[in-house]
Amino acid sequence: MMQYSIYVKSCLNKEQAEGTINLIKRFLPRDGHVRSIIITEKQFEKMKVLVGEEDRNLNILGENRTIEF
C-alpha cells in the first residue's frame, strides 16, 4: 500500500496534465515518494468502491480543479 494522501487534478487534455506534472516537479520534497498517473475521465468513472459508500460530496478546492479525497 502506498497511499498516505491522494490528490486529483482534473485537466482538460493531456498537454495540460503534463504541464501540471512539470509544475509539481518544481516543488518536490527532498525525501519521500511522490508519484503521478494520468487517467481519462472514463477510467476515473469506472473506479469501484470496495469498502464503504461512494462519497458524492467530494471536496473540490477552488478554481484549480483539484479534488481532495
TrEMBL record:
<keyword id="KW-0378">Hydrolase</keyword>
<keyword id="KW-0540">Nuclease</keyword>
<comment type="similarity">
    <text>Belongs to the CRISPR-associated endoribonuclease Cas2 protein family.</text>
</comment>
<protein>
    <recommendedName>
        <fullName>CRISPR-associated protein Cas2</fullName>
    </recommendedName>
</protein>
<dbReference type="Pfam" id="PF09827">
    <property type="entry name" value="CRISPR_Cas2"/>
</dbReference>
<dbReference type="GO" id="GO:0016787">
    <property type="term" value="F:hydrolase activity"/>
</dbReference>
<dbReference type="GO" id="GO:0004521">
    <property type="term" value="F:RNA endonuclease activity"/>
</dbReference>
<dbReference type="InterPro" id="IPR021127">
    <property type="entry name" value="CRISPR_associated_Cas2"/>
</dbReference>
<keyword id="KW-0051">Antiviral defense</keyword>
<dbReference type="InterPro" id="IPR019199">
    <property type="entry name" value="Virulence_VapD/CRISPR_Cas2"/>
</dbReference>
<dbReference type="GO" id="GO:0051607">
    <property type="term" value="P:defense response to virus"/>
</dbReference>
<dbReference type="GO" id="GO:0046872">
    <property type="term" value="F:metal ion binding"/>
</dbReference>
<keyword id="KW-0460">Magnesium</keyword>
<dbReference type="GO" id="GO:0043571">
    <property type="term" value="P:maintenance of CRISPR repeat elements"/>
</dbReference>
<keyword id="KW-0255">Endonuclease</keyword>
<keyword id="KW-0479">Metal-binding</keyword>
